[in-house]
Description:
Blueprint: H1 3-16, H2 18-21, E1 23-25, E2 30-39, E3 43-44, E4 47-48, E5 55-64, E6 68-76, E7 86-98, E8 101-111, E9 126-137, E10 140-149, E11 159-169, E12 175-185, E13 204-216, E14 219-228, E15 246-253
Antiparallel strand pairs: 1-2, 2-5, 2-15, 3-4, 5-6, 6-7, 7-8, 8-9, 9-10, 10-11, 11-12, 12-13, 13-14, 14-15
Amino acid sequence: MTLASTALFGGILLASGAGHAQQTIEGAGLTITTTPTIASDYSFRGMSQTRNRPAAQLTLDVEHSSGLYVGAFVSNVAFAGTNARQEVDLNAGYRFELAGVKLDLGATYYAYPGYDAPTGGYELNFYEFALRASYEIAPLKFVGLAAVSPDFTGESGLGVYLEGGVDVTLDYGFTIGGRYGYQWVERNFATPGRNEGAFGAEDYANVSLFVSREIIGGVTGTLSGVFTSLDQRQDCFGGSKVCDNRVIFTLSRTF
């Protein structure tokens, strides 16, 4: 069984036992949250990780009353020219509030179990440090993200990502929002004669717009439009379609 099917199966089990899926262990000060998700595509910073195909995902978060937390995320992936089929992310950090701003200082390790680098290829695994922030003035919620990887995916060197956005709560349970992000990578393309990894695309901007609402029984539906600044035929990993502008539909349930 792949990790993707495990995530989907886990989501079905969680849905069938919704009253017990979230647990607050008061004696230990722990809150455990699980979120199964089914999506028409897995988009990471504007790029499809499944080549515009559906994804089954599961997120786990364990937070202590002190603000310390650990978590995990699993999803199926499909990268052209590789045998990568699943992604497992492990993260840990500290959440706190300062002058009304909610902050999350953490680190994530992105792993692709079962992946074997092809001849002349490089590792996909990488780790990243990130600072997330949010500030709410109802009905607006402002969010930001700054992430730094010492050696980004594909052994492409220093990677820096910045993102900002806003969510707006509307009547009848609707939320709309948008995000603008920009990804910088030290080595965008391989240099002939040098044994160094590379990302495979230019630095790029990405924009996402979404509308979401609870549909039934705590299940939230989200419709998103995703756009990047990359020319799909020239700049996107040798003509790959993972940078296409596209519409994504997601169903999720947080327990």
